[in-house]
Amino acid sequence: QGAHQGCSGLRSSIASILWKATSGGDSWLGRGRLLRPPSPAPAAPGARLFRLPGSGAVRAASPERAGWTEALRAAVAELRAGAVVAVPTDTLYGLACSASCSAALGAVYRLKGRSEAKPLAVCLGRVADVYRYCHVRVPEGLLKDLLPGPVTLVLERSEELNKDLNPFTPLVGIRIPDHAFIQDLVQVFGGPLALTSANLSSQASSLNVEEFQDLWPQLSLVIDGGPIGNGQSPEYRLGSTVVDLSVPGKFGIIRPGW
């Protein structure tokens, strides 16, 4: 499944496949407080919800910055307490928890009804962080071409990751979504987040918070960044493209995404 490539050839080949990928399954990773000023939205018991100001994917400008910062602080506090929160990404809504909290990892599997044999991805805030949590055997330029973006890069994991995170594999899928809020969240949190799609296993992925409303009672926080993509097109529900870069000189597309 792999193809031997030079650095530039590998980069262009992956880019070509990412652009052409239009279908795929969830074979590698799965895929509340709603700030709704001035009046709060109705919330299911146990859920707290925040709506991000502006478009949600772009850092708030000055008058709305307070709402952005409030949502950020609330999410960081819940993650540090070992809770599971729902967040927008550049592809889908996701469930996130501290990758270092074994109890939180177990909670994600239980609330999704997800098989523990399916790995969770790790969300990082910067390309530089990849080198801490993975053994990287591809050029830095390739990582920077692909990240941030709608891809999950599968690499060999380092000893820095929690041993209870995907203990059945030496590999890990790395995400740096092209989404300002989740990048801010990971950097302020100060550690890796485990990330999976916000839906019950085997059900359709979510492009807005209402689509996974049945999960709200089991979440500590839901961050509403508005609709993602085009809900009428099934292509937008495919999630990120999963690219295996764990073998030097080779790559493989594990799952085509949108």
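The record above closes out task 2.4. Task 2.5 opens with a second protein, given below.
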Amino acid sequence: MLAVRTQLGISPAYRIPRGASSTTTIQFRPSSTLDHVSAEKPRSFPTEGFPTIEPDQPLEEEQLFDYSPHRYYPAYIGEIFQGRYQVCAKLGWGSCSTTWLARDLRDKKYVALKVYIHNSVFHRELPFYKHIAPFMSSDHPGRECIRRFFDSFIVTGPDGKHIVLVQEPACISLFDFKQNIHENGFPEENVKSILEELLNALDFLHTECKAVHTDVHIGNLLACMDDSQNAKFKGIEETEINDPSARKQVSPDRTIYLSRAILPKEGPLKLSDFGEARIGPGPYDYPAMPMPYRAPEVTLEVPWSYPVDIWCVGLTACDLLGLDMLFRADHTAGNVYEAAHLAELIAVLGPPPTAFLELNPERAAQFWDEEGKWKDLVPIPEIGMLESLEGQLGLPLAFVKFMRRTLTWMPNERATAKELLEDPWLKG
């Protein structure tokens, strides 16, 4: 059984694999020196006295099916970037980057460093931030729900160059929050508050920035906190010194750390991860979106735009409430993977209207016959129509009506973010 480690002031933390020890001492290279006289001095972090993970236990990014250590920059706690950003703790990891909490020695604040993997194509996030910069002084409430960007630079590792984004520090994604705290979903009133902030963020992106996120889900929604005095993040740094994170030494120059989970009591929601965002309204005519979240027009290879984000709002609402995942898009379906996804859409939404199939008749003919009948490339699963959601977890019919405004075959029939902000269920 895996153990849950509770760290001082940060509860609960992520799981440590069996075999973690608190006695082994590991030495790693010392922190860099500052390039200039700073308002704050760098701190020394422990080189012993922390739990260690057994070499045969995959940890964090090592669990990815395509993990390669040479793609990840081997950052270490205590390291200083650009002569000003000292790494204090590891906050998270993903398929394209790792995220670290750092203290800005010059400006006396805490930031997040998102270090992209070597040769990553996901650094499109940088041009996105440059695009929206002129709009971040707007009085639109949605701008406060966008994760802020401060700086960027290049760092050279043993295997090449990595792009680093300096961003507003955040606490924990709603995916991790749900996995660790709210396994059965968030309370309905909390979900309404989350969706209101998400919709404000999307309305800001769509109407002012003219951008499409394309990757909206609970993993890209960050629970944050008001920490203007740096008290919480300073506590993280102190904890890292007094109770250092578990880690695994994989080579003399590479250490993999256990991420720290930071749980806010209250604070704003931030939409993040803009590596797949599209600048401009489009329409776009190439694949996008993870398959379980993929809007039907993308699967039908029809030009798409802002409505794909609204489609994801409906699916995000289900995730937050702890409802059964509507679309699973089973990868084992092989070459009928897309057909399996469309079959799930039919099960939940009902058959598509003729107008939808006419958006791309040639593509539609791969899945439907001339009369608009499903070709049964894969059987339509028994998932249940959207209306079956009524009564689940005590949810009202108003919620089903909200969902019907987000999950539609025809993209032009989906409500806009601004319209959904006035939805009776959301306002009730």
